[in-house]
């Protein structure tokens, strides 16, 4: 009677097979793990244990072991099992003290916990713990005191969502016979160039740029983006005040077909909301304004164009003077206008707010029916 290839039959789905093949291909995969992945793939192909062992240069027992482990435990079973290692030198008390330290306010005169500061702090100073061991314990506890993440504390204000929805409505459903224009300023653009010329990239080597640079002053610009065409008008400004801004609006008004209405989207900057600016807009009834809510200037599409300008020109550009910077910004705007396409807006604040309310209601409902909440109520 013929003997079966193996009692541990390996059957792989497409996803598991792709994962094993990725382990085999990846240069950074440990060789032991890559060999185990090859054993499983060949077993899936129907190879007997003896043939797999001969092909991979290992013993039949090795093939049998990893084949059995994979069938019982799947992909995680190919990893090495945890080992006891040497006895723990610093017990739970030390680990708890480190966790308490980094989750409290740093000592006076410092603003962030460092490994050296932790090792020499308070009750830890007498334990003889090294700086590197403190770092290893932090990594094991998944505590990273050197990193910080910010957030914006803003309450759920209905006025915020109403203003955001008004801006999105203009983008998604523009009124007929109306030109939608986004306006914003970018101030303090540095005109600087490297003291020594850089070196271009070569095969296997990144481009190199000298550290020292020479400053030649700053430039500020105001830009108006037409949403329907994607074209932009950018002008240098010497002052960011209502006189400069209304002058820019006057030139836009003169350039746009008088039969069309103009709808401006802009933030709440002082030059946009001053009495002089409001009076000028009131004297031009074909112009209407929608302001982005506070902390939401990203709703202004002109900000997106400034991002394109920064990445494509300003971040690595060399500008020998203010006039050189102005000329290059103007040239960049002209080139953009030659290939401009309508800007497509996808975000809908109204739908986002509805989804937020639904998620909060679901969270509140789950919290109200949780065992802990019901126990407190009882």
Record keyword descriptors for this entry.
five-stranded mixed beta sheet; alpha/beta; 4 domains; Nucleotidyltransferase, domain 5; about 375 residues
Strand order of the main beta sheet, please?
3-2-1-4-5
Order of helices and strands: HHHHHHHHEEEHEHHEHHHH
Basic shape: elongated
Distance between the termini: 70 Å
Q: Please, could you describe this protein's structure?
A:
With 378 residues, the chain is α/β, with parallel strands linked by helices. The protein is 46% helix and 13% strand. It contains 15 helices and five strands. Strands 3-2-1-4-5 form a five-stranded mixed beta sheet, with helices on both faces. Strand 2 (213-226) and strand 3 form a beta hairpin. Helix 1 runs antiparallel to helix 2, helix 2 (31-44) runs antiparallel to helix 3 (49-56) and helix 3 (49-56) packs across helix 4 (60-73). The chain is elongated and about 90 Å long. The mean pLDDT is 89.
């Amino acid at each position: 009677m013929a003997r079966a290839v193996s009692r541990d039959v390996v059957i792989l789905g497409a996803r598991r097979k792709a994962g094993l093949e990725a382990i085999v291909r990846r240069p950074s995969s440990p060789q032991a793990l890559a060999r185990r992945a090859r054993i499983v793939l060949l077993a899936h192909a129907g190879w007997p244990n003896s043939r797999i062992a001969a092909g991979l240069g290992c013993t039949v027992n090795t093939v049998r072991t990893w084949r059995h482990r994979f069938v019982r435990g799947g992909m995680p079973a190919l990893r090495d099992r945890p080992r006891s290692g040497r006895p723990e030198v610093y017990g739970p008390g030390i680990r708890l003290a480190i966790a308490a330290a980094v989750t409290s306010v740093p000592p006076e005169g410092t603003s962030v916990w460092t490994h050296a500061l932790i090792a020499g702090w308070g009750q830890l100073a007498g334990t003889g713990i090294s700086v590197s061991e403190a770092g290893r314990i932090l990594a094991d506890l998944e505590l990273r005191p050197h990193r910080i993440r910010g957030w914006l504390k803003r309450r759920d204000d209905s006025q915020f969502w109403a203003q955001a929805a008004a801006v999105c409505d203009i983008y998604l459903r523009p009124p007929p016979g109306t030109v939608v224009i986004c306006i914003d300023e970018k101030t303090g653009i540095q005109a600087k160039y490297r003291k020594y010329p850089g070196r271009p990239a070569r095969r296997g080597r990144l481009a190199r740029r000298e550290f020292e640079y020479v400053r030649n002053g700053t430039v500020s610009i105001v830009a108006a983006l037409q949403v329907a065409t994607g074209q932009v008008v950018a002008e240098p400004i010497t002052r960011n005040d209502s006189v400069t801004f209304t002058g820019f609006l006057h030139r836009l008004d003169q350039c746009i077909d008088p039969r069309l209405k103009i709808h401006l989207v802009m933030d709440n900057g002082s030059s946009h909301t001053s009495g002089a600016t409001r009076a000028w807009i009131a004297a031009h009834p074909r112009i209407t304004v929608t302001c982005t809510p506070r902390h939401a200037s990203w709703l202004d599409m002109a900000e997106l164009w400034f991002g394109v300008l920064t990445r494509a020109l300003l971040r690595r550009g060399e500008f020998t003077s203010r006039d050189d910077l102005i000329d290059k910004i103007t040239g960049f705007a002209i080139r953009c206008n030659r290939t401009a396409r309508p800007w497509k807006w996808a975000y809908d604040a109204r739908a986002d707010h509805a989804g937020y309310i639904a998620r909060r209601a679901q969270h509140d409902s789950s919290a109200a029916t949780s065992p802990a909440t019901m126990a407190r109520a009882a």
